[in-house]
Specification:
Layout: E1 5-18, E2 21-30, E3 36-42, H1 48-57, E4 68-71, H2 74-87, E5 90-93, H3 98-109, E6 129-130, E7 139-146, H4 147-154, E8 161-163, E9 180-187, H5 192-202, E10 204-210, E11 215-221, E12 225-232, H6 235-250, E13 254-260, E14 270-275
Parallel strand pairs: 1-4, 4-5, 6-12, 8-14, 9-13
Antiparallel strand pairs: 1-2, 2-3, 7-9, 10-11, 11-12, 13-14
C-alpha cells in the first residue's frame, strides 16, 4: 500500500443511458490530479463488491492501493467505507477534493448540450441550524490581514487548534502580498477552547454572508452541514459583511476563521484558513 491519496466519487450519472437502466459513474483521481480512472456501473449492480473489484483494477498501472481515500459526496460515503474497509484503506469525508471536482466539471462540460442542467457537484444541503447554546461566543467581528502578514501572524503561534494547509497559503495561490485576506474573529471567553474543539470536529469549510431579515453569517462545515454563526440587523455590520464578501472575490475565495478568548490579540484558541 502506497502513501498516495485518492479522491473518489461514485454516484448516479444521468448522461449515461443504456437499455433503459440507471447508471452510476466511478471516478478516481490522485490528489495531485495526475491520475484518473473511470468505470460505469448499472444501478442493479451497485454494491461494495463491485467497488472493491474496480478499486483493485485501478491499481493495475499504479502498483499499490492508496493509503487514504477522500470522499466529498455523502451518498457515496457508505459504499466507499465498506469497500475501503475490506481493502484496509482509510476514508476521509471532506469537501476539499479539488482534483476530483475539477475532473467531474470538465467531464460534465463535454455533455453540456445533452444535459444542460446537470451539475456533478450539486449536493442537497439542509437549512442552516443555530449553534448549540453552550458554544455561542461572547462577541465577534469581521477582520482582514494583508496576504503578506497572514502566515507570519498565525503560523508560529502556539494555537491549540490550527488548520493552515500549505496549498491555501497566499503565496501558493499566487496572491499579491497586498491583497486583503478577509476573516471573522469570534471572542469566546471561557468557552473559547470548547468552541475551537467543537469546530475541529465539525470541519469548517467556508463562511458566507447571507443578507436577509435578519442578516446571517453561515458556517459551511463537514460535507453538507450548515451552521448559523451569527445574525445581525446593524447597518454598519452589514456594510462590513459586504466588504468581507467583496474581499473574498479578490482573494480567490481565501478567508479565515479565528477563535480567541478575548480581544487582547495575545491568545488564540483556534484558527482555520478557508477557501470556497
Amino acid at each position: 500500500m502506497s502513501g498516495e491519496v485518492w479522491q473518489v466519487d461514485f454516484y448516479r450519472y444521468p448522461v449515461m443511458k443504456k437499455a433503459g437502466q440507471v447508471w452510476w459513474l466511478l471516478v478516481i483521481c490522485e490528489s495531485t490530479g495526475q491520475f484518473a480512472y473511470e468505470a460505469y456501473c448499472p444501478q442493479t449492480e451497485v454494491n461494495s463488491a463491485w467497488l472493491v473489484s474496480h478499486l483493485q483494477q485501478a491499481t493495475n498501472d499504479r502498483g499499490d492501493l492508496p493509503s487514504l481515500i477522500q470522499v466529498f459526496r455523502p451518498q457515496s460515503l457508505n459504499l466507499l467505507e465498506l469497500a475501503a474497509s475490506e481493502l484496509g484503506i482509510a476514508i476521509q469525508a471532506t469537501r476539499r477534493t479539488p482534483a476530483l471536482k475539477e475532473h467531474l466539471q470538465a467531464k460534465a462540460k463535454t455533455h453540456a448540450l445533452q444535459t444542460p442542467d446537470y451539475n456533478p457537484l450539486a449536493l442537497d444541503a439542509p437549512p442552516p441550524a443555530p449553534l448549540p447554546d453552550h458554544l455561542l461566543g461572547q462577541s465577534w467581528r469581521f477582520a482582514s490581514l494583508p496576504a503578506s502578514e497572514l502566515e507570519a501572524t498565525f503560523a508560529e503561534r502556539p494555537i491549540p487548534v490550527l488548520e493552515m494547509p500549505k496549498r491555501l497559503l497566499p503565496i501558493n495561490l499566487g496572491l499579491a502580498s497586498t491583497v486583503a485576506i478577509p476573516g471573522v474573529i469570534v471572542y469566546g471567553g471561557r468557552r473559547s477552547l470548547v468552541l475551537a474543539r467543537w469546530l475541529q470536529e465539525a470541519q469548517p469549510y467556508s463562511l458566507n454572508y447571507i443578507p436577509g431579515s435578519p442578516d446571517g453569517l453561515i458556517l459551511e462545515a463537514g460535507l453538507v452541514d450548515r451552521w448559523i454563526l451569527a445574525t445581525f440587523t446593524d447597518a454598519d455590520v452589514a456594510i462590513a459583511a459586504q466588504t468581507f464578501t467583496k474581499r473574498k472575490q479578490t482573494s480567490q475565495g481565501l478567508h479565515f476563521l479565528s477563535i480567541q478568548p478575548d480581544d487582547s490579540g495575545m491568545t488564540d484558541s483556534g484558527f482555520w484558513l478557508l477557501q470556497e
